[in-house]
Amino acid sequence: MSRVRVHNLSVSLDGYATGEGQSLDAPFGHAGTRLLDWFLRTRAFRDVHGESGGETGVDDAIARAWGPGIGAEIMGRNKFGPQRGPWEDHEWTGWWGAEPPFRTPVFVLTHHPRPSLEMEGGTTFHFIDASPHEALRRAREAAGGLDVRIGGGPSTVREFLAADLIDHLHVAIVPIVLGRGVRLWDGCEGLEERFRTESVTTPGGVTHMIFSRP
Ligand SMILES: NC(=O)c1ccc[n+]([C@@H]2O[C@H](COP(=O)([O-])OP(=O)(O)OC[C@H]3O[C@@H](n4cnc5c(N)ncnc54)[C@H](OP(=O)(O)O)[C@@H]3O)[C@@H](O)[C@H]2O)c1
After folding, report:
1. Which atom of ligand 1 is least distant from the CA of 159?
2. For ligand 1, atom 10, which residue shows the shortest CA distance?
3. Ligand 1 center to residue 73 CA distance, Å?
4. Domains, the chain, ranges and CATH?
5. Which residue of 5, 8, 11, 18 sits with most ligand 1 atoms within 8 Å of its CB, as the best mutation to test the pocket?
6. d(CA 19, CA 40)
7. Is the Cβ–Cβ distance between 210 and 199 less than 8 Å?
8. Record's superkingdom (predicted)?
9. Are 95 and 25 within 8 A, CB to CB?
């Protein structure tokens, strides 16, 4: 059976995976880029976006596990964009430009489905109103035997954790305090009992925690 994986999910010391006040100009709200700075510096990030340069090292080595073996992604509607409620227009195609880095089918969970969007480079966004089990069934079907990534945001990851559908969870704990936003861990009491946990802190100060099935 293919595995369900989360990678590079960045949280602040106080447990927030995004800030407050998401808008078109601020995908992470008041957090700005602070949660992702460690990742933006890596060569892995640059590679995925077709750019040269970037740091190598432990953060890079861990970050690049994001891509291999993945055949589909599931993401929440707020990762795809800042809109809420019914779509007012269908112009918005996500934060990532004409050629998003996913290069697989991507299932966007929303209570407001809209027609699929085929992008350049192999990404197709499908907008579905589905339970975690049903979304995973569809993603697995599209993934052709490969693994399925749960791409975030925190509400969606929490939903899949609550349904006990995640096999591998990589959380990058970033040494910042956000104070407000959307928290990852709420309702996850006792999570550690379901997983083997390992962690490593890198020289940049990020603690990578891996929760994997025993
Ligand atoms: N820290 C990180 O590494 C990281 C990673 C990814 C994203 N992010 C950030 O996290 C934020 C988004 O996270 P979030 O927790 O606010 O939201 P989210 O998980 O991206 O999306 C939640 C929304 O998805 C829809 N949805 C979720 N489950 C559904 C289901 N089963 N059926 C139908 N619709 C469903 C609902 O939208 P509707 O009801 O409106 O349709 C819900 O309000 C963004 O700021 C993004 O940039 C951070």
Report:
1. 28
2. 153
3. 13
4. 4-84+100-212 (3.40.430.10)
5. 18
6. 17
7. yes
8. Bacteria
9. no
Ligand 1 atom nearest the C-alpha of 172 is 3
Give me the residues paired with residue 149 across strands. 5, 73
Does residue 76 line the site of ligand 1, with CB under 6 A?
yes
State the CB neighbour count (10 A cutoff) for residue 22: 22
77 ligand 1 Cβ < 6 A: yes
